[in-house]
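Key idea: predict the complex, not the pieces.
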Amino acid sequence: MMMWQRIVRNLLGGPVTEAGPKPADEALAELAARVDGAARALLGRSLAIREVDAGSCNGCELEVNALSGPHYDLERFGLRFVASPRHADVLLVTGPVTRNMRHALLRAYAATPSPKWVVAAGDCAANCGVFAGAGGVVGRVADVIPVDLHIAGCPPSPRQLLAGLVALLETPGRSSAAGVASK
Amino acid sequence: MRRNIDTDAWRFLLAEPDWELVGLWAEPGRVHLLRRIGADLDHVSLDCTASYPSVSAVRPSAVRLERAIHDLWGLVPEGLGDRRGWLRHDKEYDFLPVEGDGIHQVPVGPIHAGVIEPGHFRFHVQGETVVRLEQRLGYVHKGIERHMEGKTPAEAARLAARISGDSTVAHSLAFARAVEAALGQEVPPRAVFLRALMAELERVANHFGDVGAICNDAAFAFIHAQCQMLREETLRTADALFGHRLMMDRVVPGGVAQDLGDAGKLRRFIAAARPRFAEVVAVYDDKPSLDDRTNTTGITRKALVDRFAAGGYVGRAAGRAHDARKNPGYPPYEALSFEVPVFEAGDVNARVWVRIREIEESLKLLEQILDRLPAGPIAAALPERAGEGLALAEGFRGEILCWVRLDEAGRIARCHPRDPSWFQWPLLEAAIEDNIIADFPLCNKSFNCSYAGHDL
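Result:
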């Protein structure tokens, strides 16, 4: 009974989901420089994301998981997490790459069909963060696989993650995907 | 205080009957053993050049710690049969063999299906039934202990805050208290209360997330969505109060880095979250389809929980009441009133109920802390000198140990943080035995052990 009362109240009260952020300017600039327009047109506005923790402290995973919650509702943008790299268009990689995860990351990258993009999320993925120089770390994500987009933060907040990810949906010369989806 | 003992005394201590293993770690030429006997902690060390008598034969919770010590420091545990690497993955790894009719293997990981940390699970199954699960961990080993060496306590605290992101407050607290113990440094009363405030907020946020995620793995999306909202609002409250959603780098040696923002925000959050969570709990309690999945699933017996001295919800769901906030206890908890909920069944359901009751207790604690928050400074300057100290802190997962030794300049000479997951991961292997493999995600989520905290 309690559950139905709550569901009815939620229905009447309107969605908890908030308007999505505009694509981050620095993400658009980075992508414009790196990503081929033809590939973006091919992948369109629906992207399957395979998350790979290559050595993170799990802080990034907490915030990536928050994207699937009612406040952020990632799927309304056409973005969704998939279980296999074989189903993925995007690898979202967190953490400095550890010696023990390097092989798995390379295999996940090889298993992802082209065209594919790699997003390095969090300061560790970008520059190893506080773990730079640690004995078990082989380097940043870009030292192991090619990276198309960086999202800064320790960890990046869900809004920062969203602002970066929705930039992937922008095709130059087309109206803003994020703007449409958040209406 | 630590006693340095010889090999005969070490063997004698191992043979004593009633003690719990709290920690086992090493440095070049020395192993440390921390035991709990009733309410007392006993810290001994043994100087050794190549090997030391293994603790595993009497306390099996030491097996993985000894394998890790061998990987990191080259010290051989005499008498431990299992010499496979644990944190070092440079050799081929042989999983333990299983023989029998129709047995097959299911390898899972290191990259899992969901957005979770990496590790490898090797299942041997007969039909749907799990005959044996063997875990292989160490994939996110970064070498944090060594990386801390030579850093100032303030620098190393940033690493402690990133041992396990979900326990950033608790690990920072254990580290800070170990440094303060090493230096004999008092912390201002306001900082003591603010630390507890952050620790309880972290506990509430994680338990909200876990209750939701466990129900999600039982395919019950409603509770998952409600708990995700509650967790998100907890993190936003933390952000408003301390300027960071996870409160990372806010607990520092000497005190806290940031004073509380608008306390009214926290009071309003508590007032709103309490009745909403009560609704969620009523739904959880009322659904036979959920009950069918969580009741009698993934049982850990009390004997095993006691033998591994497993803390947190894993221990408390199976009758082991230990909570570092009570034993040994640390400020300000002796001045606050709270219960440590204990259940007996040891199944997924009991682990959910421990979390539910702990959320309720932590919300009460948050109110008490706000009511009694003393005025004054929030941090003390640390002297720069040598010292050695250890501390325990109760994270959402259980008891965290941190031991530290500072050199003459007050920098980190050695540090060992021990996450509660070390004593919980092995019990998950036991809990899943004879369950169907389809219930593994549910069992795993109900344990929610840390990979990063364990792998270091």
